[in-house]
Design a protein that fits this description.
The protein folds into two domains: 96 residues, Fe-S cluster assembly (FSCA) (GMP Synthetase, Chain A, domain 3, 2-Layer Sandwich), CATH 3.30.300; 253 residues, Rossmann fold, CATH 3.40.50. Helix 4 crosses helix 12, helix 6 packs parallel to helix 7 and helix 8 runs parallel beside helix 9. The strands form four sheets. An eight-stranded mixed sheet has the order 8-9-5-10-4-11-12-15, with helices on both faces. A three-stranded mixed sheet has the order 1-2-3, covered by helices on one side. The chain is elongated, with a radius of gyration of 24 Å. The protein has 381 residues and is of the alpha/beta class. It is built from twelve helices and 15 strands. Bound molecules: adenosine-5'-diphosphate (ADP) and magnesium ion. Magnesium ion (MG) binds next to helix 4. The site of magnesium ion has 5 residues, from helix 4.
């Protein structure tokens, strides 16, 4: 874009560099103002690259990609890359560009009219019902279907999403924009990435609100098809903040088959009545465990998911379906501990199949909903 390339060889190299994406921002380095200059001298391309931050961990990837791209140009036999770092002005410029023009003020892209991102907030009444496991599996399954997917781990009390997705890196910051680390094709931001070690977080409502707002506005998500939010259990402050920040977020309720859990899940779901958010459906997790002899053991009882779906349908007057029943399966826990969700590591296991089937039901782009009266069916008598 701003790079100085004077002769045709140099122009050809610059054109070739347009195929190189910044590994973090995932946009062409030429568009990001990262190519400062290109000079060609008897078959050697001298390229000067400006990194967004000093000590960028992905420098080697860039070096490899740039070398590969430049040597596709006929006559270029060698590439020499010199790395510099953007000035503060250049970074601000980049930030503006990423935010799509003049507006330097952080806005929540998903809350803008015309946003095509479907936002699913995963809620539960209690902790430990598998909310995070369901979130990461749906995210990985949707990414595997070619969708662009992000996850916000907003469970301040039990942030576990990065481990379950095998995300180790910390987010990089460009000015006040945060680049989310990515794993299995899923972009991830977790409150755990901003606290030290395993320290417990005691945050009050306004701080939570601010944190959620930052995750939504200051993180560079790019064009997402789906954003999943792993909410803390219960009906607390975060649910209210979410409704204010992202009124179009749709709620997915996770419960176990147990009657007691179902009652609590119902309360969490009923919040949507006050916030006027759509309930996408209920997912029952930890359903029957299939024993080696083929019999099914209902460790946590049965029927909870359907009960919650039925009462939320009655309560809201809109159809709230039971989207799936995920069986108890040791593979879910093992995969979570390994950082590769079971939908990827063992897609043919009972839980893998059930989770993939739910993902299929959710893999619908927002614009394809236009004209459909989803969630607007008349109240039943
Ligand atoms: N379907 C399942 N089968 C076996 N273990 C599961 C299943 N779902 C979740 N788990 C395990 O149960 C524990 C709690 O799940 P988690 O997703 O962390 O719940 P939450 O986010 O609701 O607190 C984790 O150790 C997880 O691996
Ligand atoms: Mg959790």
């Amino acid at each position: 874009m701003s790079a100085a390339a004077v002769n045709t060889d140099e122009q050809a190299v610059l054109t070739a560099l347009a195929s190189v994406n910044d590994p973090e921002i995932r946009r062409p380095i030429t568009e990001l103002g990262m190519v400062e200059s290109v000079k060609v001298d008897s078959g050697t391309a001298h390229v000067r690259i400006l990194l967004t931050v000093a000590g960028c961990p992905l420098k080697d990837t860039l070096r490899t990609d740039i070398t590969a791209a430049a040597t596709t140009v006929p006559g270029i036999t060698a590439v020499e890359i010199d790395f510099g770092v953007m000035s503060s002005d250049q970074r601000q410029d980049l930030q503006k560009r990423l935010r799509g023009g003049a507006a330097a003020e952080p806005v929540i892209p998903f809350a803008q009219p015309g946003s095509r991102t479907r936002v699913y907030a995963v809620a539960s009444g209690k902790g430990g019902v598998g909310k995070s496991s369901v979130t990461v599996n749906l995210a990985a399954a949707l990414a595997a279907r070619g969708l662009s997917v992000g996850v916000v781990d907003a469970d301040i009390y039990g942030h576990s999403v990065p481990r379950m997705l095998g995300v180790e890196g910390r987010p990089t910051q460009v000015e006040d924009m945060i680049m989310p680390p990515q794993s299995h094709g899923v972009k991830v931001i977790s409150i755990g990435m901003f606290t030290s070690g395993n320290a417990a977080v005691v945050w009050r409502g306004p701080m939570l609100h601010r944190a959620l707002q930052q995750f939504l506005a200051d993180v560079y998500w790019g064009d997402l098809d789906v954003l999943l939010l792993d909410l803390p259990p219960g009906t607390g402050d975060i649910a209210i903040s979410l409704a204010q920040l992202l009124p179009t977020a749709e709620i997915l309720v996770v419960t176990t088959p147990q009657a007691a859990a179902a009652e609590v899940a119902e309360r969490a779901g009923a919040i949507s009545l006050q916030t006027h958010q759509r309930l996408v459906g209920v997912i029952e997790n930890m359903s029957g465990l299939t024993l080696p002899d083929g019999t099914v053991l209902d460790v946590f009882g049965s029927g909870g998911g359907q009960t919650v779906a039925d009462s939320l349908t009655r309560l809201t007057g809109a159809q709230v379906p039971l989207l799936g029943q995920i069986p108890l399966d040791t593979g879910v826990r093992e995969a979570g501990d390994d950082g590769t969700p079971v939908v990827l590591s063992r897609p043919d296991s009972p839980a893998g199949k059930a989770l993939n089937a739910v993902a299929d039901r959710l893999a619908v782009r927002r614009d394809s909903l236009l004209g459909k009266s989803l969630g607007l069916s008349p109240a039943r008598k």
